[in-house]
């Protein structure tokens, strides 16, 4: 229960921070007398709305180069163009940039001038999805909080890439070409505040090594992962959301304790090769086991031990916290076993 409350508070805090930033963008409106000045320094290829003087809209314009960015700009939209390079020159005056969207361009690593991004000392969000990157770009500004690199060709993460990114909370590397050899034991060193790591739709056969200790959301769907090392979750004691759908997990590939990890609240193991229900924690609230090879469910065996911890007895007065369970697509025949319902008294949704 404490973990649930912690996560809800975290989500609300993040949402409030995001809303505050958006509110700043909306209400930091320049006086009408200054609109002429705004138009004067606005790149002719882009649009500078008078009501949002901190934003510069250059998306969907067939641009091949990044225009010169005015010093007043916080939010820069350049998605869906034909841009191949990120030189340093257009950003010389853009010292206030917080947000850059360069999704759906043709940017390569060779096209990023060294220092072009790291000079942006206030940058918080960098979107480079749907480009032609083959490795994670570096160096990046220490201020960065979100790095979105989905749907590129990333197969390499150079040593030290993340060493100075202690403020990064979200790293999205889904749908790239990452193999196990892309990772060293110190690859993620420096990511002290990382909360979400998404490496779905790559070519991993093993769990990534030595993840940041603060990781709460780990997404590894659509890989070829066959097993999880013993005590793997000791390194990420705060993980609450774990997605391993569409992998090659077998019973033999799971740790002895299964997923009996008190921090995990949502566990997704759909479309794997499991023949029995793995061990779970009494804290778990959502469990996806659909489309495996499970033939039967024994509620007595599956039922986790209720924790006996000072101050937590009232929280578990109704037993384990499981509320959502998917078992469809297996070889299990209805009806739902009665001993399953006896154990999991809080179950609200069961598919079998």
UniProtKB/TrEMBL annotation:
Ranges annotated as spanning the membrane: none
Domain spans labelled LRRNT: 41-75
Recorded superkingdom: Eukaryota
Cellular component per GO, a single term: extracellular space
Keywords carried by this UniProt record: Disulfide bond, Extracellular matrix, Glycoprotein, Leucine-rich repeat, Proteoglycan, Repeat, Secreted, Signal
Pfam family, one: LRR_6
Location within or outside the cell: Secreted, Extracellular space, Extracellular matrix
Signal sequence residues: 1-19
Main subcellular location: secreted
UniProt GO BP: cornea development in camera-type eye
Protein family per UniProt: Belongs to the small leucine-rich proteoglycan (SLRP) family. SLRP class II subfamily.
Protein name: Keratocan
Organism of this sequence: Phascolarctos cinereus
Gene encoding the protein: KERA
